[in-house]
Amino acid sequence: MRYGWEAKTVMDKNDNPTGFVSVGRDITDQKQLEEQLQIRQRMDSLGTLAGGIAHDFNNLLVGIMGYIDLLDLDAGSLSEKQKHYIDNALKSSQRAADLVKQLQTLSVGVVSSKASVDIYEIAGEVFGMLERTTDRLIKKEVGMKPGEFYVTANSTELNQVFLNLGTNAVQSIKGRGVNPGDYIRVTAEDYIVRGVDFTGLPEGDYVHVTFEDNGGGMSGKSKEGHLTRCSRQKTKGGKGARGWGLPWCLILLPADTSGISILTAKREKGPHFTFICRKGRLKTRQR
Predict the structure, then answer these.
(1) Is residue 120 domain-shared with residue 226, that is, in the same domain?
(2) Which of 41, 120, 248, 280 could form a disulfide with 150 if both were Cys (CB 3.0 to 4.6 A apart)?
(3) Contact at 8 Å (CB) between 240 and 218?
(4) Does residue 11 belong to any structural domain of this protein?
């Protein structure tokens, strides 16, 4: 808790000091509101910056996707492995194009479209890429079955959440040295809100998603820093994460009133990031 103190000298009838009165009041809520306002102002500045670079980045992306399409036209002379790489490159380019739209959305404050999304499909895609591009001693575990959990979300935003969390987790583990048994893991479970709930969410069916790893974890100051910084920079020597990182995840998740993000950190076991999304409808196969 935080307190604000005010002191006043008590005078007698001859204006001589006879003592003083000190009054303390709880200003915890006031300070929290001030910190939230500061974060919002930084996010607004980030939105303005995002709108400025989105157009130029999109032009560069068009050229990249065009060359990949040209390679795809000559796919007959490529091996199956090379075709798979091209397909992944196209998917990643499309994700990047969607990210540009998110940057533009961030700059104008428009709510992004949402649909019923299979968490396994999104997490599997991200973890598959991390498995191919990062140290394979770090296990990438998706603790659910295909089609087991659907949520109402924007698939590209959810992809960015998992990608940023996964990248930060891998960098954290690499920062202290990779050991056999290191892991990053995503799990999910049903969560039902009935009546008054600590999350403040309206009644309904939700999915509680947990992302965890056994990296170095975060101290209280580090956690606060993640919540207030708009981006993370690489430290000297190449260690540490770079890019949007956790603050980007915090922008995406609370934007929809159907979900809430909760960040917890345990130094002994590594950070745990959990969030709750409204449950989506199971997609039915068309005959």
Answers:
(1) yes
(2) 280
(3) no
(4) no
